[in-house]
Write a structure and sequence with these properties.
This protein is of the alpha+beta class. 21% of the residues lie in helices and 34% in strands. It has 4 helices and 7 strands, in the order βααβαββββαβ. The chain is globular, with a radius of gyration of 14 Å.
Length: 146
């Protein structure tokens, strides 16, 4: 289990499927800028990038209902002169690929161009490499609704 995460216990969870896709390449940049803030909140500096998942049609509503019930962690933006940065909401999750899994976090910037059919996942590992994922591969994402 990743440092900073507790077992879900009685916490309700939702499982959705998502297809891996390449984003705009901004995830690594922003994770790098927020690295110290992430470490304060989740207990480690994440790999400098995000795993982008496009949630299957018909499953987005369940995901949105879950995160609305959740109490996300808030990562405050770093103070960089001249930059307009927002906070990042962080939700506990677990990614499943076959029988293997990793504890991860879904990150949701307060300022984003994505709707909830797209989620960005961070971890202390390079998830694409760890699971040998390529664009189009489908994984299961289990999100904690508490």
């Amino acid at each position: 289990m990743s440092r900073g995460m507790a077992e879900g216990g009685d916490c309700e969870r939702v499982r959705v499927e998502g297809a891996v896709f390449s984003g705009r390449g901004e995830g690594g940049f922003y994770v790098g800028i927020y690295a110290k803030q992430f470490e304060k909140v989740i207990g480690y500096r994440p790999y400098p990038g995000t795993l982008n998942l496009r949630i299957r049609e018909g499953q987005v509503e369940a995901l949105v209902a879950c995160v609305r019930r959740a109490n996300p962690l808030l990562v405050e933006p770093p103070r960089i002169e001249g930059a307009r940065l927002g906070g990042v909401y962080v939700y506990r999750a677990r990614i499943h690929v076959g029988l293997d899994y990793r504890d991860v976090y879904v990150v949701r910037p307060a300022i984003t161009h994505y709707k909830w059919d797209v989620v960005e996942v961070i971890s202390n590992e390079y998830l694409r490499g760890e699971f040998k994922l390529k664009d189009g591969d489908v994984v299961e994402l289990e999100v904690y609704c508490c």
